[in-house]
Amino acid sequence: MTQINRLGGGLVNQGQTLSFTFNGKQMQGHPGDTLASALLANGQLLVGRSFKYHRPRGIFTAGSEEPNALVHLRSGAHQEPNTRATVAELFDGLTATSQNHRGSLEFDLMATTDLLAPFLSAGFYYKTFMWPRAFWEKLYEPAIRMSAGLGRLSMQEDPDTYDKGYLHCDLLVIGAGPAGLGAALAAARSGARVILADEDFAPGGRLNAETLEIDGMAGRDWAAATIAELAAMDNVRLMTRTTVYGAYDHGTYGALERCTDHLANSGGKPRQILWRIYSKRAVLAAGATERPIAFGNNDRPGIMLAGAVRTYVNRYGVTPGQRMAVFTNNDDGWRTAADLAAKGVEVCAIIDTRDAPAVCDVPGARHIRNAGVVNTVGRKALRAITLTDGQVIPCDGLAVSGGWNPNVHLTCHQRGRPEWNESISAFVPAGDLPPGMAVAGAANGALTLGAALEQGRNVANAQIEDLGFTPSRDTPPRAEDEPHTGAPVWHIAASTKRAWLDLQNDVTVKDVKQSYREGFRSVEHMKRYTTLGMATDQGKTANIPALAIMAECTGKTIPETGTTMFRPPYTPVPLGALAGRARGREFRPYRLTPSHEWAKANGATFVEVGNWLRAQWFVRPGEKGWRDSVDREALQTRQTVGICDVTTLGKIDVQGRDAAAFLNKIYANGFAKLAVGRVRYGIMLREDGICYDDGTTARMSENHYVMTTTTANAVLVYRRMEFARQCLWPDMDVHLISTTDGWAQFAVAGPNSRKLLQKVVDPDHDLSNEGFPFMACGEVTVCGGTPARLFRISFSGEMAFEIAVPARYGNAMMGVLMEAGREFNAVPYGTEALGVMRIEKGHAAGNELDGRTTAYNLGLGRMVSSAKDCIGNTLSRRPEMNLPDAVKLVGFRPVDRTKKLIAGAHFISEGKEATMANDEGWISSVAYSPTLGHSIGLGFIKSGDTRIGEVVRAVSPVHKTEMRVEIVSPHFIDPEGERLRG
Amino acid sequence: MIINHPLLGPRDAAEFVYLGDAALIDRPDWQAKDAAEQFHAYGYLRDNPAGTHQELWYHEQGDRSWLVVTRDTLTHEITDVQIARDVARSRGRSA
User: Fold this and answer.
1) Which helix (H) or strand (E) holds B5?
2) Residue A843: which of A970, A696, A942, A750 has the closest Cα?
3) Total structural domains in chain A?
4) What is the pTM of this model?
5) ipTM over 0.90
6) Does the CB of B42 have a partner CB in chain A at under 8 Å?
7) Alpha carbon of B16: minimum distance to chain A alpha carbons (Å)
């Protein structure tokens, strides 16, 4: 038999055997085991090396509070570091490896670090690695990183999927121990919608680990019966393997459900689900966590919390050792001795810090009163313990009980501070709970079974009565209150050897005392100086003993010394679960333009523009690089006609009797006098006078306008317009609706644009320059009756139109336009050519409207009306924003035309040093102009409008380059605007 | 957080966009003598109370109502929610 420590019994199914490996070694366990219980069963006490000193470590607890037994679980891309063996459910084929050692686990080459311990006390690297400064990055930090730390990432993409979900309930019960089961049962029987969540795979809490009775039956049987009843009720959702990790505002709780972690293969199902639970009320029944007593060399494999020993013995049928000793300061520790003895395990001694009679009779065990453990022997496994009186007791397992701390964590997630309860020497929840939460059972300081059952039921009944439910009149379950008194002892002062408090971060009693001596006396300072409680276990077993030691140093009481804040999450939540499906391509939704399919079929390369995917350019056979395509598209558009999907620009439908007056408030320039059938270009300011968006608005009829915004600001403009409509001018008769997705819109630009459109627009519409001049708009029909809107606007500087059809016709419309344009050699163009042409024309875009520039900077100062009230005009008149030497938007070209301008380069006058003080402005947009045959740029330079023809330096310290550039008009093409009016 | 929308009932705060102090409703008169000073205060000066705060939330993923929410900045307790348009009217913006 390889399972040398298997006793039998408990909740494991010994009829079935599961095989697993630890560090490559084949081992066996059973369904119902955790990795920890199976390792113990196989006699594998050594499971890892400690964080800092590389000390051999074993299994310390039997639950989610485990500080020591962290392993790599699974292999390859599925490998997960720092998995607590105590909560990892065993499955057939599980592979686990130990962490943080060089060489084998048994002969860790880094173990010599332990010999250097005198030099590695709290804060050592703040003091030791001060100089020489350059050594920190190159030598010290890499060396420390290599020697410290725990698990390693697989460095591969996480192959699992994760989901998110939302749940609603009347009552959320957190924890399915006796209090939680009592609470859930009472609430469920009254008809309330109940969610019962427990982090364990076997609900029942301590009932599964103890030999106590309820209503005359074994506690675990009562738990199983209660769970069966709850599971059969429609108004109950039973969630096992689900950790409620955070209490958020207004009754919202975060929960992590581990759906397939207990399976060898997830079978394509989500590995974990992150739930957001909306509850009307909640009962926290999270139980309590046992705390250790600190003594010399208390970190050896084989030393374990006493309650955890009971869990292994009673639930898993496993003993941690063959010859056990118990060290306790309270009655509860005695039950460990009794339960071990009842299973036939030798208990050699019970060491009680109290000078008190035996709590119960434990056959074969010596009762040693008024004593403590000062030291232990055995490097990789415990061999013996030394007591305060000097006697040495050989043993291979030691159960330590220092009393129990209520799990108050979730009561503190909204700034609640627990209060000290002297009778159990522990913090218990105070009155400042998150709204809607009540606490029951051990989490509330009711540490005995009878009290927990009663409190769970009473608290749940009070909660649901508050919601209007009538509590059921069933007979409440009853149980005895087991003895649980104790006397607080936090550490054995007689110990001269290092006594560990935080096993995961390797913090000792000495470190806390040193923290005190060096002035880090507030708990928050001590925590950060020593790193106590800052590991993945968040100090669940370490915080209170450390606090007690600090209290001893300061001569204050524990509550005067304080407690640390608990914040979510209660236990670690994988980043994958927080991300859910929002990974890679699915990071956020993306939007396709109406002509996307056409573009895909015609060689488009796409680019992300906000949420949109837009055609960037269309590759033709023989083109070697993107510039070939873009140059061709821009040239061909200017020579004949080009077509571009511009649907992504925001479209806002503005209607109402006060629509004109409203637009007059929104735009900085006047809109009140815009005639029906005409379009106007407008700029929008923020209230601080900065220009933030521009676009055109068309007056379709008396009280109907269609506005366009930039693609990037479509949402923001609409939001601000709704703000203005509802909050600033609440009685204007104006209504807004976003129609961005409703209409597919295409720019048709170039000398042949009219001819092309005349083939598409139904013939009863006059598109001549007289009938439909520059800045005209109107409702038309296309293709024999399809409704459309036509706008004669131009971004390219050419004669151009934009035609809009209902979005569902968009893809077809693109085909129709291209087909009609075949005789003119029409070209589809993407965002790059669009950008080239707008730079050639000198139009401002996002690069120019960068949140720093005013209309004055943009050369549009005269558009800002002072004759009316509009958003931003008052503050835009501030003198500091209108200085004569303010930067102005102008054009630039390299003096050496073969050179390429660099966007972001800064302007320095010739002969001046390239410093911040001499900075005169920057290049905001650059492009290669295929029309001009050289690089061109737009940018801002001080007093730019009066410096046309001057040569300055464009310096880019980032690229370590500079070149001479000439200031020119921003209108590189057709400055008089003859083409677009043609 | 959950905001109890006067028209739609309790909705998750994730559906909303936060703007800030409800004082932003009180946009100054552009023709006031000290309009520049008033707009400066309007644009830049905010109270930052530890406690009750009236603030503007926009139900962007919902009915696009602007709401005035009274929230305790320490506890996140929400004691009142009103349609911002009604608040604006009550503050005399009906002109």
Assistant:
1) strand B2-5
2) A970
3) 7
4) 0.92
5) yes
6) yes
7) 11
